[in-house]
What does this fold into?
Amino acid sequence: MNSEEKAQFHIGEHVVYPLQGVGVIKDIRERVVRDVPVLYYVIYIDMSDMTVSIPVQKVSESGVRAIVSDGDAMKALDSISSKYEPVSVDWKARYQMNVDLIKEGSIFSIAKVVQGLYHRSKVKELPVQERKLYDNALSLLIDECSYSLGKDKKEIEKTIFSHLEK
It folds into this structure.
């Protein structure tokens, strides 16, 4: 194992995998790929009941990151109660903009998508693809905030909706 392949996460640690949610590092194992030993994280993602393997050296480009602090989780939740500025673009452009925000992987981007699509759905029913995107973003936000704040997912969901209704 070379020096750039030092593991930054540990077995048992919770991490966020963009677009998939919170996962737990189940193992860090070495595999030989084209005669070169490569270190991998084995991450189990509860939300989708799947296990993924990511090379340690590719973890930052994959977007896998530590769960945010409780302070940042609270800031993200508070941000959804801020004044909402509607985006005046057609739904396809809006959809792509929201997909890009979710791919960014930050909890603040995800909160922005939840806020935008929630308020949009109050004006007009969301197209199916946007509805799925909203449901996914909401699940991602609930998942990470729940782990970060050490609270039940139902409690986090109630908090989110009370903030959105402000």
